[in-house]
Fold:
Amino acid sequence: MKLEFSLKDVFCPKLFNCLRAYTRKQLLQDSIAGFIVGVVAIPLAIAFGIASGVGPTEGLITAVIAGFIISAMGGSKVQIGGPTGAFIVIIYGVIQQHGITGLLIATIMAGILLILMGIFKLGNIIKFVPYPVVIGFTAGIALTIFSTQMNDLFGMNIESVPADFLHKWVCYAQHWQDINWWAFGIGITSLLMLIFLPKLSKKMPTSLIVIIVMTAVVWVLKQYAGVDSITTIGDLYTIPQGIPMPKMPSLELTEGQTLWSLIQNLFPAAFTIAILGAIESLLSAMVADGVIGDQHNSNTELIAQGVANIAVPFFGGIPATGAIARTMTNIDSGGRTPVAGIIHALVLLSALLFFGPLVGMIPMACLAGVLIMVSYNMSGWRSLVWLAKNPKSDFIVMLVTFVLTILFDLTIAIEVGLLLAIVLFLKRTNEATSIRSFSNELDPNANSDVYGHDLEMLKIPRYTEVYEIDGPYFFGIANKFDDISRQTSSGEQRVRIIRMRKVSFIDSTGIHNLEQLYLRLRRSGIVLVLSGVNNQVFGALEKAGLVEMIGHENVRNHINGALERAEQIVEAIDNQK
Structure:
């Protein structure tokens, strides 16, 4: 078989298709949507950059560059890319362990992994990450983000907050006497505005309005009331105007460390960034498809995400992915093509070029309020309640993933969560697959592969036993079948029919067990006959040489033929006596 590969199969940006029939009316709608979502993205990009442990400039740069690339090269018409809350925990952890340089290298590695996922058409596979795992780590990230904002919300000005979740709260408790009530008032007021303003109008850029109002209030308090204790972004960070020139991340290796050992150390973080970025972007694209009635190209989307994450580290940026909240804002505002996402990136660039001094005046307590609201919306507490009413195994997977995300890190949480989900899937598949044995009669009413319309019971020949496998024949079922067949086989058996009409696929363990069963039966003078083998399973058996070993005459398409073959074998044995 000739293996053909076409770049168009995995990389076909939606922008090219949309521009072929682009109209002035659509340009106007996209421009309005791009401006609105750009305005909404400004405070989020700043907040995510600061919460990640870098700074507001890095957040804005990421939103500009990644937002432009993801819209221009992506596989979704309306996806808006940039820094998101899901990455805060990962970024902060990588910086703590490996520094800024380690984060930049890990982000580039993640970008390469994302491109490889797209090239090898893994876009659809990523969608099969179990829902309880997604809900577990999303809720865990939300709680972690919430915990990181207490220092700024209460204005405690703790210089070094522990990274560990439990130690973080211990640290807060030890500094409760340092609460700045002015900062706390700004933070709580911001949070209340974020809760109640959307009730007036869901279309207004609530986060931006809150930041503008609170920044003005703090400026008035500092100028006319002598309140200088409220910390602003400018007090902690230098806000440059414009995008810095690209440069290669410096490889500062410690004594005895090699580039390869550094890559090995960073690979778990890079893998987590890639997997999380893929999951979040494709989930966002799927939700968007349901709203606008379109179908995104998942592999193209992964490649675009990869290119964006390779590009942003050269400008000092952080990991980026598709952002579902900004994507939905884009859709609600009338955006229907990637042009809206490109305009959103230009709006962010304008903020970076011309409004740097104003960004420096934003109070940190107000940003804490914005991020607390983000963590609440991200928590998906309704999904947690819903899962609690579902099978306990799903709830346990979610709970374990949630706890591991909080107490350890996202890499361990995803790995253990996926492992638990796989084990439970195998357990359920094993329970769903049944194995039955027959020694006298078969009911044709329950047999779809019986020829003719005679509904009388089918007689099973003397010295013949029939086993039916209902479900996939993989390693767990293969061992189960082997145990059952050993326990139920009779001493007078001369023919064993294995009915496989409901076996959808067979793996190497199943093939191995069939081979061992054949050899064991042959030593006992028993002939093995297979019945109802579908084309896929037959091909696997034939490729393994098992069909030739058993004999083509002993592999039948239906039970009638298998029973006839059993009669022939029994008669031949009788004639030999």
Q: What stands out?
A: DSSP finds 26 helices and nine strands in the chain. The beta strands are 81-82, 321-322, 434-438, 441-442, 458-459, 464-470, 495-502, 527-531, 555-556. The longest strand covers residues 495-502.
